[in-house]
Amino acid sequence: DMLPFGFDPITAEDRDRMMNISESRTLDYKVLVVNVYYPDGKSEMIKDIVALANAHGGDLVLGVAEDRETGKPKEIVGMDLPQGGIEKFRQHIQNLCIDAVSAKITNLIFGQTLLDNGKWIVVIRIPKSHLAPHCHQKGRGEMRFYLRGTTRNDPMDIEQLRRAFREHGDAQRW
Predict the structure, then answer these.
(1) Do 103 and 134 form a contact (C-beta atoms < 8 A)?
(2) Which of 27, 54, 75, 123 has the smallest number of Cβ neighbours within 10 A?
(3) Angstrom distance (rounded) from CA 62 to CA 30
(4) Within a 10 A sphere around the Cβ of 128, how many other Cβ atoms?
(5) Contact 27, 58 (CB under 8 A)
(6) Cα–Cα dist 123/115, whole Å
(7) How far is 91 from 97, CA to CA, in rounded Å?
């Protein structure tokens, strides 16, 4: 399930509760070790957002290290933000979802909390999309479709793509 509490800000009590919530089809924790301003980091962020939008929507929680065995948070480490702070980061992510995603994802909801260590927890809520399937446009005509599984994001196979186009119609837009 998505986070069962408000996330702008995430209170200390909410952070304690979050430590007992495992990743799921609608919840993905990321330490964000890859810089989203470089190509690999951009691709990883787009993949995560597209996968959630193509599934049931969900929360992408940045700045949280997960225990790979339990899927629960291991540590809330926070993340550094680039010069320009949270607004620049938010704008960058929104631009990625417009410039490198088809059909564009424009309805992201952001929440953020500054931790005592000077780092941030950022939550990106991705609503379930009625324009799915979305794909990551990687350039030169390369399109990649992803879907959130139980605890990971996988490329969509032919049958999943067929089902998505049937459910949402409008295959002509491609």
Answers:
(1) yes
(2) 75
(3) 5
(4) 13
(5) yes
(6) 13
(7) 10
CB 128 within 8 A of CB 91: no
pTM, two decimals, is 0.90
| Phi, psi at 143, each rounded to 5° | -125, 135
- Paired sense of beta strands 73-76 and 101-102, if any: unpaired
Render pLDDT for 108-134 as a digit per residue (tens, 0 to 9). Answer: 999 999 999 999 999 999 998 889 999
Rounded Cα–Cα distance for residues 136 and 104 (Å): 10
Query: What is the reported pLDDT for 170?
Result: 58
* Coil, strand or helix at 40: helix
d(CA 77, CA 121): 8
Whether 43 contacts 136, CB under 8 Å: yes
Sequence-separated (6 or more) residues with CB below 8 Å from residue 38: none
The H or E element that residue 156 is part of is none
